[in-house]
Write a structure and sequence with these properties.
43% of the residues lie in helices and 20% in strands. With 188 residues, it is an alpha+beta fold. It is elongated, with a radius of gyration of 21 Å.
Length: 188
């Protein structure tokens, strides 16, 4: 529901601002979310924000520096320090994958997502919920090889909408989806 209006009875099309459904400019997607989809979204967010990437890089550099200084100071490599360094490297490398797996556990049980992208915004339905988002929520989007990632307007980009291209079932859907996104938000 959005603004007190029920999304029921609109079929698979989103309502325009005047309450009229426009099927010509609405794009339909149907997919089951996967952990890889979330990972793509998190990587896009990292490339745009760069803070998390920078912090992880500094953290890793400090650990490597500590390990090198302690190895040079002792004149030999300590097994415990080496194991801790390998753990830190694994943690820094695996953190986005752990986040993606966690998000998948949260949303995966909801089953298939049916998404409508229209001039009114994005409507996402599952068997358990309906979410309607207006275009004003998004600062822009980025297209990857297999996804469209929409980024929220908040400074920390806490909300991501990942639209996998595999969810499009019509051949002209990709170009229409790109056109709707370009019309209502910007590429970042």
């Amino acid at each position: 529901m959005a603004e007190g209006r029920s999304a029921e009875g609109t079929g698979n099309f989103a309502e325009t601002a005047d309450g009229v459904v426009d099927g010509r400019t609405a794009v339909q997607l149907a997919y089951r979310p996967q952990s890889a989809d979330t990972l793509v979204g998190l990587r896009v967010r990292e490339r745009i924000k760069r803070t998390g990437l920078l912090l992880r890089g500094v953290f890793l550099a400090l650990w490597v520096g500590h390990w090198l200084l302690s190895a040079m100071g002792r004149g030999s490599i300590d097994v415990v320090s080496t194991v801790l360094l390998l753990f830190v490297v694994l943690l820094v490398w695996g953190y986005p994958r752990l986040q993606a797996a966690h998000v998948q556990r949260i949303i995966g049980w909801q089953g298939e997502y049916r998404v409508t992208v229209s001039p009114a915004g994005i409507t996402c339905r599952s068997d358990h919920s309906t979410l309607v988002q207006k275009w004003s929520v998004f600062q822009g989007y980025r297209e990857t090889a297999g996804h469209f990632v929409l980024l929220s307007r908040d400074p920390n980009i806490m909300c991501l909408d990942v639209l996998p291209k595999r969810g499009l079932h019509e051949a002209e859907g990709l170009d229409l989806l790109r056109a709707v996104l370009d019309q209502h938000t910007t590429r970042v």
